[in-house]
């Protein structure tokens, strides 16, 4: 079976929980105000696509490839990005709600997070070298066995990161972020 190829198409206000998104390759497509909640979008390729104000919570993305995509004002609760095609994964997430998302073991160096809420997100063994978490809320996010070298947490908050469990050379933190680095040792930092 040959997968379909869709290019330069706009999908606006569609509910893919009722009418499934066709299997195939989507290039330079835009999705606005679409619902993918619990939808099965497995085995699809999204290349240079934009998702604006979409609901993707609990979407099943097994073997799905996400490359050079942008997500803005989207809700992505519980999405297991590590179940997708993780090679060449790259995306920009701006002002998204990404609680309980999983990025375990993914190379995320070409990924940007700006203004996102990422409560309980799982970055175990992820390569986050050089990634900036601009104005992100990382409350209860898991960072274990990560490469955080040159990562930028200066405007992020809510994180707890154990420097002994992660590679962190050159990572940047604001003074306000020190409590999140010292929590393992039971130290209190007062302002």
Task: Tell me briefly what this model is.
The protein is mostly beta strands and 191 residues long.
User: What's the total count of β strands?
Assistant: 11
Strand numbers in spatial order across the main sheet:
2-4-6-8-9-10-11
Overall 3D shape: elongated
Task: Report the C-alpha radius of gyration, rounded.
Answer: 17 Å
Q: Largest sheet, described in full?
A: 7 strands, parallel
Low-confidence stretches: none
How far is the N terminus from the C terminus?
62 Å
SSE string, helices as H and strands as E: EEEEEEEEEEEH
Helix proportion: under 10%
Q: pLDDT average, as an integer?
A: 95
Q: How large a portion of the residues is in β-strands, by DSSP E?
A: 15-25%
Overview of this protein structure:
The protein is mainly beta. It is built from one helix and eleven strands, in the order E-E-E-E-E-E-E-E-E-E-E-H. It has one helix at residues 178-182; strands spanning 4-7, 10-12, 24-27, 30-32, 45-47, 50-52, 65-67, 69-72, 91-94, 112-114, 133-134. The strands form two sheets. A seven-stranded parallel sheet has the order 2-4-6-8-9-10-11, with no helix packed on it. The chain has a four-stranded parallel sheet with strand order 1-3-5-7, with no helix packed on it. The longest helix is centred in the last third of the chain and has 5 residues, at 178-182. The chain is elongated, with a radius of gyration of 17 Å. The protein starts with a strand and ends in a 9-residue tail after the last helix. 32% of the residues are buried. The mean pLDDT is 95.
């Amino acid at each position: 079976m040959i997968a379909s190829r869709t290019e330069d198409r706009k999908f606006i206000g569609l509910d893919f929980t009722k009418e499934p998104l066709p299997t195939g390759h989507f290039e330079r497509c835009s999705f606005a105000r679409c619902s993918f909640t619990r939808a099965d979008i497995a085995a699809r390729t999204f290349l240079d696509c934009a998702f604006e104000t979409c609901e993707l919570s609990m979407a099943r993305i097994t073997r799905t490839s996400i490359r050079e995509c942008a997500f803005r004002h989207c809700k992505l609760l519980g999405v297991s990005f590590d179940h997708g095609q993780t090679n060449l994964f790259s995306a920009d997430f701006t002002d998204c709600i990404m609680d309980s998302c999983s990025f375990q073991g993914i190379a995320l160096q070409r990924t940007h997070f700006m203004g996102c809420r990422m409560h309980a997100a799982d970055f175990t063994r992820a390569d986050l070298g050089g990634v900036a978490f601009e104005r992100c809320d990382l409350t209860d996010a898991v960072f274990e066995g990560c490469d955080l070298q040159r990562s930028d947490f200066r405007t992020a908050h809510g994180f707890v990161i154990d420097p002994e469990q992660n590679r962190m050379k050159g990572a940047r933190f604001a003074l306000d972020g020190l409590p999140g680095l010292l929590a393992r040792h039971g130290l209190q930092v007062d302002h």
